[in-house]
Specification:
Layout (H helix, E strand, L loop, with lengths): L8 E3 L7 E4 L3 E5 L4 H17 L7 E5 L4 E5 L6 H6 L4 H16 L5 E3 L5 E3 L5 H8 L1 H6 L6 H20 L7 E3 L8 E4 L2 E4 L6 E3 L3 H7 L8 H15 L4 H30 L8 H12 L6 H8 L5
Antiparallel strand pairs: 1-2, 2-3, 3-5, 4-5, 6-7, 8-11, 9-10
């Protein structure tokens, strides 16, 4: 990549197709593949967040034709780093619930992008939710099964995921970041800043809470998970609690099957094997959320009778 006469340092990347560089006063985000989403939509959604009092990276310079943009530098302190120190862990998480509630209060789902055109957030359709869950079939299952067994299990999981999606009860009507977890929240000048927002949609109010509480990259105790869920629902929930809990469980499970697929794809296709270390805990979270409710009965049976974990 050629940048215009800048002394830059490449930063460690994430699971996306983007590359990140630090200059003296900015972060440079380079993306040739899917650049509309990774650069233009990313900035448009950040504008929605900033206009609603939620801190997010601000555009400094648009070099879209050269496949990169410059945004404000938020430093290196993620909540993941802070929480690993184990000091004030519960308090930090409670503050994150406040941030999530503030995000869910957003009512204006559009902004102008840096070309001057109107950008409107899309809804998180059931088809998109299923397509993401099916990544498990495409990338994870082939690692574990023979060809003969593979087709049979693919059909079973496809039907299970379809039935789970149909069991979701609440409407898609809030801002959903889709990756609301401690690695995507920065602390600068004692304020939270939300990053990695390019996949944000209008979706289910339980989705981001599931992303935060059942974060596959950051282990928390089951007691803390319960505390966080109860705190959020008691303080902020103005919906039917049973429906919300139902959706929380289903969305956590579908999201984590998606993650199993994505991490397997990153290893096989992109040689990013570091994500495989999260797979055992991802399975633990799936087992935790599926152990009781009737809606998961068929899934439990399939998991218990096939060696795929």
């Amino acid at each position: 990549m050629k940048l215009y006469n800048k002394n830059v340092t490449q930063l460690e990347g994430d699971a996306s197709e983007r590359n990140f560089y630090r200059s003296k006063n900015s972060i440079i985000i380079f993306s040739k593949k899917n650049k509309k989403k990774n650069l233009l939509i990313y900035d448009a959604i950040n504008r929605i967040l900033n206009s609603n009092g939620i801190n997010a990276p601000k555009l400094i310079k648009n070099n879209y034709k050269q496949n990169f943009i410059e945004v404000s530098d938020l430093g290196d302190t993620t909540l993941f780093i802070l929480l690993n120190n184990k000091k004030n862990r519960k308090k930090i998480f409670m503050n994150l619930l406040d941030l999530l509630f503030k995000v869910q209060k957003i009512k204006k789902f559009y902004s102008k992008d840096f070309t001057g055109r109107k950008y409107k957030m899309i809804r998180y359709s059931k088809d998109k939710l299923l397509k993401e869950a099916y990544l498990f079939n495409e990338w994870y299952l082939p690692r574990k099964l023979s060809k003969k067994k593979l087709n049979e299990l693919k059909k079973k999981f496809k039907n299970i995921f379809l039935r789970l999606s149909k069991a979701i009860k609440l409407p898609d009507d809030v801002f959903v970041h889709r990756d609301f977890h401690v690695s995507n929240i920065m602390l600068k000048q004692k304020k939270f800043h939300l990053i990695d927002s390019q996949d944000a949609v209008i979706g289910n109010p339980a989705y981001d809470l599931a992303s935060l509480i059942d974060d596959v990259r950051f282990k928390t105790s089951n007691n803390l998970k319960k505390e966080l869920f109860n705190h959020f629902t008691k303080k902020y929930l103005n919906r039917d609690l049973k429906k919300f809990e139902n959706d929380f469980l289903i969305l956590s499970v579908l999201r984590n099957f998606k993650i199993l697929g994505i991490f397997s794809r990153l290893a096989k296709r992109d040689n990013k094997n570091r994500y495989l270390k999260y797979i055992p805990y991802t399975w633990n979270l799936i087992k935790l959320r599926t152990k009781k409710e009737k809606v998961f009965e068929e899934l439990r049976f399939v998991l218990n009778n096939n060696k795929i974990i």
